[in-house]
Give the backbone structure.
Amino acid sequence: MESDNKDKFRKTLDVATNNLKGCFTNVQKVVIGLVAVFLVIFCGCIGSYYATSHTVVFRVQKTERIQEEKDLNFASKYIVLGEKLNPTTLERELDRNNLPIPQVYENTDSWLIFKFNSRDVQAQLATAEKRDDLAVEAQVIGWRIPFFSRQPNIISVKRIIEIPKK
């Protein structure tokens, strides 16, 4: 009688152990899947961010600092309003209505690309803002997405160019 109880207990224990092994295997599969999805999304974000890197030339019209408060944490970013210039002639580019093409850029620090010098970049842009005869050649990254209020981020100011007078 006692051996029958032991056998039943062992069978029950074996079934429970096998069920737990299957459970842990499924949990491990889910965790591995989630980690893989995260890595694909993260690498895709970094890749798309770097893939959009390009150089622009513009005349700075206005710079402003926007500060937001979120749960007692302050986040700030700089917005740069500019006028698109032709990179070779440094003349204003015009749209089909013969109006200057406005440009909006963001200047923020970014952990994704290890950019932590937005104040230095902003100081260079402020210098160009003070004079109408200066243009900025800058390295930017990202897209303009109006729905999400996203603008290309200015990574660096390559040079400040004096616009020749006509």
About this structure: The longest helix spans residues 2-51. The longest strand covers residues 54-70. Helices lie at 2-51, 118-129. The beta strands are 54-70, 73-84, 102-107, 134-141, 153-162.
